[in-house]
Amino acid sequence: MEEYTKIDQNTISSLVTTGAGYDIMRYQTLPDFLGQDAPYLLYLMGKNMARKTLINNYDELYEFFQYMGWGDLSLVKEKKKEMIFRLTGHIIEKRLSQDLFHIDYRIECGFLAETIQTLTGETYECLEEKYTKEKYIELTAMIT
User: Fold this and answer.
1) Which Pfam families match (predicted)?
2) Which of 27, 80, 111, 139 has the fewest CB atoms within 10 Å, i.e. the most exposed one?
3) Homologous superfamily in CATH for domain 18-143
4) More confident residue, 2 or 141
5) What are phi and psi of 88, to 5 degrees?
6) Helices 38-51 and 106-120 sit at what angle, rounded to 10 degrees?
């Protein structure tokens, strides 16, 4: 098995990217390349990214989402077997208001599920729901 150093917050904050280039790659090129398996593979990419990222608590998780340009993540409801998060912010509003690309949040869901699993010790899966009119994404992480 290949050894690697986990990516920490300092490394992530030092990276520079433009949102447009990232969006074109993510929402057009990757789905074309991955074909019909794209949603499943993007989810697994998010889980894999989480395994290689050092996140010790929920504040670091929220900060990671911001650094990645994924939006502002916040926990809005916690039940016995699920956690409901809201993804908001300027980037979410822009993505929800465009018609050029089909926007999904499979990478974010995979990353969130794996990170919560690491933080809690429970196995989680995550689903997304778009609230276009209200301009936010709801990510529901459920114990499986």
Assistant:
1) DUF2507
2) 80
3) Trafficking protein particle complex subunit 3 (3.30.1380.20)
4) 141
5) -135, -175
6) 40
Residue 37 has pLDDT above 90, yes or no: yes
DSSP string, 54-96: ---SHHHHHHHHHHHTS-EEEEEEE-SSEEEEEEESHHHHHHH
Residue 122 in tokens = 């429970």
Phi/psi class of residue 92: alpha, beta or left (left: φ > 0; alpha: ψ in -120 to 50)?
Answer: alpha
List residues bridging with 85 in a β-sheet.
75, 139
Give the pLDDT confidence score for residue 30 in this predicted structure: 87
**pTM of the predicted model as reported, rounded to 2 decimal places:** 0.87
**Domain residue spans of the chain:** 18-143
Q: Could you give the percent of the chain with pLDDT greater than 70?
A: 90
